[in-house]
Specification:
The strands form two sheets. This protein has a three-stranded mixed beta sheet. A two-stranded parallel sheet has the order 1-4. It is of the alpha/beta class. The protein contains seven helices and five strands. α1 (3-13) packs antiparallel against α2 (20-31), α2 crosses α3 and α3 packs across α4. The termini are close together. The protein has one domain (3-146). β2 and β3 (74-78) form a beta hairpin. The radius of gyration is 15 Å and the shape is globular.
Amino acid sequence: MSKATISAAVEIIGRDGITEEEIEDEVLALVGDPLVARRLIDWVPEVFGRVLVASMGRVTVVKEFEVQDERGEWRRLPFESEPIVAVAQQRARELGAQSPNDLFLKVALRSAVASAVADAIKEGHPLTGSSIGGPSFVTLPASVYLNGQG
């Protein structure tokens, strides 16, 4: 996945006032493939959220994710199984280094990991020494990763 494509997806996902439907339509128009669009929509915020949480320095972020196979069984895989991760992580770090950066925060705050950390903080749970598990993607088939199509 090219940096230009990831950057364009970031701009779409982080746009003020954009709806989920608009994100889906625009990312699909960007890449032309529904599965690739879904992967971008699901992965980019998670990667940005992980970069944000990792920058806090108090939380260990697990580098595995789960997807379901055709039998409905969850399969745990390393982040490296998804090629989008490396490029999105590079873009997240670039944007995150520019302070302040609203685009980085808007995308990162769409992630499950950022929501989990925010909830823990609101509930008064200490973050130091804690770990955050990897995401589970119900919208992505395991076959994408298990058959080497990632």
